[in-house]
Amino acid sequence: MKIRVFLACVITLAAMTATPAAQPLRSAKLSGKVSDASGGVITSARVQIISLQDRKSQEVVTGEDGTYSVTLTTGMYSIRTEATGFEPFVLEKVEVKARHLNVVDVVLTVEAPQERVTVTARAPSLEGEAETKTNNHQEVLEIREVRESAARDVGEALGKLDGVWKIRKGGIANDIVVRGFQQDNINVIIDGARIYGACPNNMDPPAFHVDFSEIEHVKVTKGVFDIRHEGSLGGVVDIVNKGPAPGFRATPVVSAGSFGFLNLSGTASYARERFHALVGHSYRTSDPYTDGRGKSFIDYANYRPAARDKSAFDVGTSWFNFGYATRESQKLELRYSRQRGDLVLYPYLAMDGIYDNADRLNAVYRIENISSVVERVRMQGYFTTVKHWMTDEYRTSSPTPTSFSMATFADTKALGTRIDAELRNLLVGFEGYRRNWNAVNTMYPTAMAMHQPMIPDVESWVGGLYGQYRRLVADRLMLTAGGRLDAARMKARSGSLNPDLYWAYKGTRITEQENFDPSGNVWLSYSLPLHLEIFAGVGRSVRFPDPQERFIALKRKGSDWIGNPDLNPTRNTEVDLGFQYRDHRFMLRPTLYYSDLSNFITVHNQAKVNPVAGIMNTGARSYQNVDAKIYGGELAYSVGILPSLLLNGGVSYTRGTKETSLATGIRDADLAEMPPLRARTALRYGDSCFFGEVEHILAGSQKWIDSDLKEDPTAGYGVVSLKAGLHTKKVKLAGGIDNLFNRFYYEHFSFQRDPFRLGTKVPEPGRSIYFTIAFGIFD
Prior knowledge:
about 775 residues; Immunoglobulin-like; Maltoporin, Chain A; 2 domains; 6-stranded mixed beta sheet
């Protein structure tokens, strides 16, 4: 009852916040073109517009024709323009007038080698708004950097960022790990909307359900410093999709590479001042890859010979984006995406994905210049759903090649809303969503099928209020402080659920839980003379247990798989500290972090505590709260050796420990699935039309393992890769060779959260060649 009252109150308050209260301010449009000294247009240039009245800023990116356009309130502005390979250019005191043609064209000159770093640190902002200020706990991966790589999905592409790793289960659908946090300990958001994988074995993580051709960039916020999304315990991966550029645009893209990889995609868009439309489609497929020893990944698992004729994955995605400005300062945008995944092979697991279909529907309404108090309101509603079917029909565990001995059908839905209001230096908002997860497992221990409500139709309701204050409190001191208050309710609703499973192992039969928790953070950055900035942050974030951790219920041969209905929310109290030095040829940014985790949720081996008729096993895989710590550091650097030659790289380290408890079977003090020490160094040459890069990644061995969960140590490795490319006004070509010396190696992750894991380690691909060519067609 308390939760319902709380949700009703926050919805009412959010609606009141969003109500316009005064006469709109006058607005005007600013546009222009960015070009080089020869007259050639510069695409993807960043144009930052800073108000000289209140120092608030916006950023836009030039399109294929080098143009930009932005709607502002009238007044005086400073305009800063940056582009990769060019010297930044600043115009001071530019007046923007209403009912006036405000045009500012910019010509950039070649210089500043450090601007060629394509992965940069930026400040967080609202979805749909651009980053404008350096912030040392967030990194941005631009889609052009992805297109220069051999990555097959977002999880694999993000692995190049310091402190970010992937968990490989096959040829695609890689999980994301941020500073040792993964799965429900981080949020993965697509255009502000939540989407959840349906598979209890995590075959289909959220980032799997978006295509590269949809994406503009991916923002990774590390630590507890996001307040807009409930459950951001260790970080947020925010995937921001493309919007259309002015006029007509069409961009066909062809990517191909070793192991039969092929990705055909294309987008087309049309945009005018008040209307835009964008459509796109992509198809990705590949054969199973081979490792550095020439062995196919299906040879590491129990596949039947017929599986050799199958693709590793076949995935098709279609999407559209429609927008209409109902008034000069108001705009409605509607996005829809449909992904159809056919057979996807997962040698890590005991089953394969026969199909995985996902739908994302997202609507956003923006109102600008509402009053002298409320500057901007953003209202969003979304619906996402995933349907997933997996079996062992391609494995030797199935009785025949055309049947299966075990299967799971799972589906999940999320219906959510968000309201943001920007009040000068203050952002306030409400987030609410409803999630349903249901999974039915089928086994054939005999000729009779046994159906079990593996995820027993669990319904979750979450609502929260948040606010963030940001201002320059002294001449060189920037303060950002935020907080949120969340309430959650979760209930297992399946009529086929047998609560005796919980009683046998956890001593409870409850099927419903409620939680109520605050969180907040403070971030300070201080600019010193001589290009030096120091920064520090402290905060606490909370995440509620997910439906699987609380209510999964599956009887199996040998060991059952049981949730823990009495799990408490996990709280992360974190401190970050570092500095950044940057001049026109050199950048250095070391960062240290320390997370104290109260009630961290870990997998453990649970002994039976109560005898129950029909439950024959004496133990189960389950979940337990335990106090833990995760700490480490990162170091990023870049050195401009010559005007066209840049050395850049980074080092990252993470360590995780937990308290032991003989009563709960937790004997090993090491946290599972912690990444080892890793270093990355790249030497890059680039000019206005050509680039080339050699990269070396060196990872240390990992001996800090959780023996309770049968983790294995992993040896260190070193890998060298090459890439190069050409780009003109209408054509972009990139290609390269990954794992140049065909090294055989494993990355360290055992995916112990999955009781259906075979115990198979999947090595990384051997030498692979790839290329991407993109064409630009525009009016």
